[in-house]
Design brief:
Largest sheet: 8 strands, mixed
Oligomer: single chain
Strand content: 35-45%
Radius of gyration: 15 Å
Structural class: alpha+beta
Strand order of the largest sheet: 2-3-4-1-5-8-7-6
Order of helices and strands: EHEEEEHEEE
Number of helices: 2
Shape: globular
Length: 121
């Protein structure tokens, strides 16, 4: 376990949502959040509000998401993956660079819930 003085988890700061109609979803989330997206492309739309990032992925994106997925921001993704898999989680997607120094990984908890991990370098 990590000491309380040096947290290895910074909390949930990113939630990704699979969507079937990106334009419609973008309008709904813009109305909900009260801001326009900061990232707006055909394969990803992202909103930054109140210290959180909300992302929309057409068709679940390359991750194949079927429902909203929370991404826990961590200080050391490799160490956290090792820690949670040793505790009983199953690795789904190994840590990989998704651009701009951001590493992401996903694990599945013993009940089948998908947990995302993010490390910003």
């Amino acid at each position: 376990m990590t000491s309380a003085s040096s947290p290895s988890v910074q909390g949930i700061k990113t939630v990704l949502h699979p969507v079937s109609d990106l334009a419609q979803a973008k309008a709904v989330y813009a109305a909900l959040l009260g801001v326009e997206p900061g990232t707006d492309g055909p394969y990803y739309v992202g909103f930054d509000v109140a210290g959180q990032h909300i992302g929309l992925l057409p068709g679940g994106g390359p991750q194949g998401l079927t429902g909203p997925t929370a991404y826990w921001h961590v200080a050391d993704i490799e160490a956290k993956v090792a820690e949670v898999t040793a505790a009983g989680a199953t690795l789904k997607d190994a840590p990989r660079d998704v651009g701009e120094g951001r590493l992401v990984a996903t694990v599945i908890d013993p009940d089948g819930n998908l947990l995302g991990l993010v490390q910003d370098q």
